[in-house]
């Protein structure tokens, strides 16, 4: 435990503070990052230098050389507590921004109040120079230049969806990499080159360039490891403390061996993994991890134990060192994006539990070590995704609960029996489906496959309903922004409203897809990823860069849907208040809503008192099921560039708060700008009045297989998990499982604690809360977002 | 008012159905609180459970002062102070509940709802899967559930048929005949033991405890029983008294004693139903003493729990 306490002090949080709420400023004077955080320009500098030198070469080669140049030139260092090394920046407090993707966000940020502490004057000057090079060349610029005039208004965030350029996932094929080392992948690329020299395929030149780029980037990563080896050796020579000296010598040995060669020990495997994880970020910054940490590392640990190289205590120690490394990653987001990422650093989650491809439980001692490390360190990342299935041992439930009890917000629980059929419905073969992992929030991916799942954007379903009530016309400007759906005065039932809503969902999904279609075409052309291609299955083998194809039958693009439960409750209220009780006509209701209910509190209360989802009341729950299902069907009518349907996803992050700002009042009685239900399965704030069992019963009526991978947040006071009631709580979880609800994450905190932390933030710097699919330091959240979390119904204990 | 006709269909007067109860017997339970109690414990945390009639219950926090309620009150029991919340003159109120329907904001409610046995079973059955996984079931509490023995018998019989685990949480203050009807349907009794001294018991609860002690034997002879003991510092928490309770428990074959340390949770409810809380200065025993008492009970070979 002592070590964990010391280690925690080494962590510099890179969590982003939400400085915007949708289109509005919010507490931007606090700064978007903690004051010690610096924008590190080395990636931008060396990428730019390299780009200038490689003008005229093919893009895939240029990208490989840019990465190689960065890895060869950036400043490296080893901190005195480290046994696993590697940093994404040249400074321990650094974060980087991929300038090749977008230069405007960092430029704007460092010149604003929210980001003024990120760079000094010299840095700002250098950034200006770098930006000048990227003007017209960054992916964002290319995208803006390419989209037709008619589509431009959808590119700007207006409240219905926030299209995001930079969000991509993917889990490397660590199993294979650990078998062959990167040298094995280089050999595979060389073999393929030799093969195409014989066969001369029609795209010979393209394949050749790609394979050469693969080799350049893999060699660069090996070289990067060797730089650390040399550094460690030099440091060892100067080190007085014999213990530290031998650690440095160990680092030197390990980094000389991996990632070139297959790892032989747990520590080597960790180091190998971390280099890959890091470089994956540096090549093209993305989110998540997703590695099935127990499945991948368990065998190394067991071998070390068996051969006497390691004991459990040391294993825990190096696991904790790895945990700290995860907290060294962070990203620069644009201020608007901060409104959906309030409190996020890099949304990394590791997966534990679940089954192997044959369906056998994978739990091993390393599963428990991961939980212990998480419990000892109590950090916001990585979040742990725990896969539960029929064969999950009780001990794993129990140990997971012990971590959950600390209030850290994870492990977050994933229900295999609910999710596997869904993943199979997406077209994934059962063997691969059984290997699924969670990269961050509830993003589901198949390790090692070239799935490139992408969160296309944040999609506000409640705003689509609002458009449906206004025929797609903005009442303030008279502009036709959404689809021209039927006139609500002609509606004779709630189903008519549902039809119009579904039409709006399809309309806006299509706009989002059109934006993304151009983006992906540009990415294929201007932003290939030779390194990433080399570490997933099938790219080297087919001679095709990751962008040019996808693992067949995996869903590709998804939108993070928010406000769906508010749509359901709204439609229920319309059914009850307008069509059944006939208190008002629909046009009257719309008029009242548009005045934010002013002067019509009676009708608003009637809408609030209409049945609400989350109380195990079939009236409301059956409509919720239909509404969520229709929304998803509407999305799926839109296909992406690979011909795969768009789908929803429950990873709401803090968007249920941030983006709700731009949705006016809705028929569920919600006021203009008020936040939405905090996750795709959660009842609206304060509307679940029948307690947690009723919530689960309601959730069970929404079928994953008819919709998507959901997220469910619940908040319980800590006394719930005391020894006395723990068995009952375990039974609650087992029932959650049996009810086939796909997901559950638990905030274990008293309302009083949160209120007091709002008042005395200094005393609660360590307080962690679960926001949506991630955990965050409470003090990093804006007051409004804190209120959103406080407002979640605390499931009371009788 | 409840009409005689309503009484003929055996309906129960229920003041709360609490799902996900984990402190009223084993596992996850639904606790059905029946309204009406022959005792009037000075520390009562559920004052709305005492009367066996439905009652007006107000929630001032929710009142917007809109005035709608006053317009229907024939007794002129509702008034307003300058721009503020409505004020109820409880002397005038005849509990007609006309005002309740007028209030859109939930600031006026009726506590106490008549329900048929079938209503209860339907509600309870919703969480069946939770009971199965946790070894839980349904608990009848109060008030004093045995005060509605006929209804209780009917609803329990239905639940029994459906295989639910049934717990009865009782003060033990009931006619033996009522117990004879109910006990065969019950799987576990939670029997409240407040004080073993009759004089003290009368002073604290308003009733004689000798009938409770006699019933204790009747109950423990037939059904698995746990004692529940509200603990108040300086009133019933001295080691001597607790040790006598433990002795009684052992003699009667009781398995477990649950301590319920005093809390002030229900204080705000008294004015909500227009009642004045009796003078009572309660305090929970401190942690050390709780630990000592817990230890004492264990030493008697009994299980012991706090709040559970
Ligand atoms: S319940 Fe009481 S206050 Fe309400 S209308 Fe009847 S008499 Fe008046
Ligand atoms: S109707 Fe309700 S909100 Fe209005 S004054 Fe009466 S109690 Fe208050």
TrEMBL record, chain A:
<dbReference type="InterPro" id="IPR051215">
    <property type="entry name" value="GRE"/>
</dbReference>
<dbReference type="Pfam" id="PF02901">
    <property type="entry name" value="PFL-like"/>
</dbReference>
<dbReference type="InterPro" id="IPR001150">
    <property type="entry name" value="Gly_radical"/>
</dbReference>
<protein>
    <recommendedName>
        <fullName>Glycyl radical protein</fullName>
    </recommendedName>
</protein>
<feature type="domain" description="Glycine radical">
    <location>
        <begin position="679"/>
        <end position="798"/>
    </location>
</feature>
<keyword id="KW-0456">Lyase</keyword>
<dbReference type="GO" id="GO:0016829">
    <property type="term" value="F:lyase activity"/>
</dbReference>
<feature type="modified residue" description="Glycine radical">
    <location>
        <position position="773"/>
    </location>
</feature>
<dbReference type="GO" id="GO:0005829">
    <property type="term" value="C:cytosol"/>
</dbReference>
<dbReference type="Pfam" id="PF01228">
    <property type="entry name" value="Gly_radical"/>
</dbReference>
<dbReference type="InterPro" id="IPR004184">
    <property type="entry name" value="PFL_dom"/>
</dbReference>
<keyword id="KW-0556">Organic radical</keyword>
<feature type="domain" description="PFL">
    <location>
        <begin position="20"/>
        <end position="671"/>
    </location>
</feature>
